[in-house]
Amino acid sequence: MLSLLGEIESLLRSLETVVDEAREKVVYYTSQEPDRFALRGLGSLLHDFYTIVEDIFELISRDIDGTRETEDPGWHKRLLFRMSIAIPEVRPAVISEELKRTLEVYLRFRHVFRNVYGYLLEWERMRPLLEDLEGTYRAFREEIGNFGEFLRELAQRLEEA
Fold it and tell me: Which side of the chain, N or C, has fewer Cβ within a 10 Å radius?
């Protein structure tokens, strides 16, 4: 459990770096619209954000749930859904239903980013995601922190057993 917590903390530091970079760019682009090249870079930040979140979910799925995702269509969405539900006698929900709905938007964007040509990215669609990124990050950080408390308690119980 403690090694899982360490891996999660490492990924959270990476996530914070991405959010810091995005914060700077959101401020920069409040007074001007990004060009196509900048849109690709901003899209990469949004892509990285959700990818790191999903990496954390995959660790939990593997180490706690005992499941490994495959490349079957829809596995990304199923993983996100599973993180929002409690698994009886295994773990509580990792994230709230509300945060799941928010993260679904970032998952959809990541899918678009991976599957369209960069020149098709639209600032009007990306801007709200970038503007909401910090709040989404704070909510994720809080909820994953609560789950971390569950992991610490579980590690302590296992050590006492």
Answer: C
Tell me which residue of 80, 72, 119 sits closest to 101, measured CA to CA: 80
User: The tokens of 116 are what?
Assistant: 């369209």
Q: How far apart are CA 25 and CA 73, in angstroms?
A: 33
Q: Distance from CA of residue 86 to its chain's centroid? A: 18
Tell me the average pLDDT of the chain.
94
Q: How far is Cα 95 from Cα 81, in angstroms, rounded to an integer?
A: 9
117 pLDDT higher than 80: yes
pLDDT digits (tens, 9 = 90+) for 58-77: 999 999 998 876 667 889 99
Full-model pTM: 0.94
- Hey, which residues does 87 pair with through a beta bridge? 91
Strand ranges for 3-86 from DSSP E: none
Long-range contacts of residues 71-77, Cβ cutoff 8 Å, at least 24 apart: 76/107, 76/111, 77/104, 77/107
Q: Is 69 exposed, middle or buried (0-12, 13-18, 19+ CB in 10 A)?
A: middle
